[in-house]
Design goal:
Order of helices and strands: HHHHHHHHHHHHHHHHHHEEHHHHH
Strand content: under 5%
Shape: globular
Largest sheet: 2 strands, antiparallel
Distance between the termini: 17 Å
Number of strands: 2
Radius of gyration: 22 Å
Structural class: mainly alpha
Mean pLDDT: 86
Helix content: 55-70%
Strand order of the largest sheet: 1-2
Amino acid sequence: MNRRMILFRVGQILVLESAMLILPLIVSLIYREWVELLAFSLTIIISALLGLIPVILLKPKNKVIFAQEGFSTVSFAWIMLSLMGAVPFTISGQIPNYIDAVFETVSGFTTTGATILNDVETVSHSMLFWRSFTHWIGGMGILVLVMAIAPSGGGRSIHILRAEMAGPVIGKLVPKIKNTAKILYIIYFALTVAEMIFLLCGGMPVFDSVIHSLGTAGTGGFGIRADSIGSYSPYIQWVITAFMFIFSLNFNLFYLILIKKIVPVIKNRELWVYTVIVFLSTAIVGYSVYPIYGNVHDTVRHSMFQVVSISSTTGFSSADFDLWPPLAKAVLFILMFLGGCAGSTAGGLKISRLMLMAKMVRRDICTLLHPRSVAAIKVDGKPVDKTVLQSVSVYFMIYIIFIATVFLIISFDSMNFETNISAAAACCNNVGPGFSKVGPMCSFSGYSYLSKIVLSAAMLFGRLEIYPMLLACNIRLWFRMPKALSGKK
């Protein structure tokens, strides 16, 4: 294990976080929030000092990154990023309890959107900005940003990209990882700005448009009003619906559009499956909630908004869907697990995994009927490697055990079954709101400190898709060195 390389990278992240904290500091200056200004200033100093120590003293001679280094780097970077990102909330008194502040910050960076705040409208502008800015940072991945601006790693930085970008298969858009990271962030930034412009055109205030664009881009869902998006105009709700859907698509598709390769985009099976799921779910939810709204436009608008919000794991709400009929809530609960497309900022299992599992089931049924038949599983006309199929099966098993474990632990608190199962599903899949006491108009503040710590860990495991965190927790790996570095055969 190249420990110096890991600590060096984590130090870089802390230095970068201190630089990113300058933006909310500027917001605190604009709105003359002096306590918040002090909080951000102190955090910038602390984060910079803690980061510079390993950057200066532990600069690695060997910058080769293997899978275990890449996964461990991402895991520890996200943990330190969250622990330091919670400090301004506590220093300023906006969230006095540090465990609550860590929960809120982890929820932000992992783009979950679950909150412990009962009255978000009393929070200062600069803290609201930092809270939503964590969504934008975490959406694409902080290590991806580091690769874009300060690349290194001996040509093996693909392991970092694999750890941060969700999905069963991660590849390079272009030969160099640095250029891949740059392309991803350029697309990400451009789409975020585009949404801001559309929201401004709809009459949304500048601050509100910035906050909601950052939250939509990262598919996070932190709002600045008690009713989330409910009090905004239908135009604004449609714009946010459209961009939630866009950000839940594979970013590779946007790159193909940029280089004018439209045919592969049109033929992309995952895109079509995801689109069908969204429209079919909207139809079922619309059928269920039509008696509540009484007209087609409001029914379609709220149904599609909530379906896209949950399937993209953004977590915004245009209505209190916890009051909807059981059929509508059942559809939304299922969508919590499905998630968006691979290579997007969305959470959940991912449509590509579901497609592969469905193809494996079909292949096994065919094998039972025709034992001598040999059928290769293909996606978009390309055969899928057996190792990928195996990893998908293993991941699904671990995923189910993981959610069940989280659900069991938080059930020690005095919450009802619906609250606990939806809280576990929402945090493990980075969705945000659940049902009952953690519904869209409620918060996670009622849980004990132990449950909040468990749910915070669940959000990190869910965002990094379990494996990086599991590898980072494997103590034996820290005392082993790859054969390529030790010289052993």
